[in-house]
Amino acid sequence: MAKRAVVLLSGGLDSATTLAVAKEQGFEVDALSVDYGQRHRVELACAQVLAEELGAVRHTVVRLDLRAVGGSALTDAIPVPKDRPHDAISEGIPVTYVPARNTILLGLALGHAEVIDAFDLFLGANVLDYSGYPDCRPEFLAAFERLANLATKAAVEGRGRYRVHAPLLKKTKAEIIREGVRLGIDFSLTLSCYDPDDEGRGCGHCDSCLLRKKGFEEAGVRDTTKYQER
Length: 230
Ligand code: ZN
Fold this sequence. Notes:
Blueprint: E1 4-8, H1 13-24, E2 28-35, H2 43-53, E3 58-63, H3 86-89, H4 101-116, E4 120-122, H5 138-151, H6 153-156, E5 163-165, H7 173-182, H8 207-219
Parallel strand pairs: 1-2, 1-4, 2-3, 4-5
Helix pairs in contact: 1-7, 7-8
This protein binds zinc ion (ZN).
Zinc ion binds at residues 193-195, 202-203, 205-206, 208-209.
């Protein structure tokens, strides 16, 4: 029987590729998405389609409204930065940082994994294009893995050891896109934008849209992303 894994699936390009990598590694994939009140909630519709297309055995959506906490351009009345030069994007921690998001998302993935007897958690964290997010760093992921093995009944009773997998951690956006193409992902089903319209079309100008465009260019892959006209 294939080993189970929980894959955090946002509906973006990175998490879709991560799901496909987990499948290729032989895992039976349980996809988990979180409706945290994100400005770009339309990504959850993409996640649902991707979970099915990429062969997840199940797709669970957890609702946890982080707008009650706020403090981010993605969950609060703070404008999403537009048209920033690449140097500015990769410098400092941007206002699109959501306080403690990966700690919260991995915590939910861990609880879900414990219930379904999975010990492998996958997420699409990446340090190259988003060096600003402290909860995407390898040190954070190693610390969370340690925490998972201290915090759960399943680990304490010796039923298994939790592992946190971030297969895209050190890849460039272009490398991720090439990997996704190799794994047969239709990237037009994914949404990266922080500020999309109701139809799920990217703004074309936020950090995430700019990195995505640059990634397709560098990968030499035709970009089928739908953008709003401005
Ligand atoms: Zn955008």
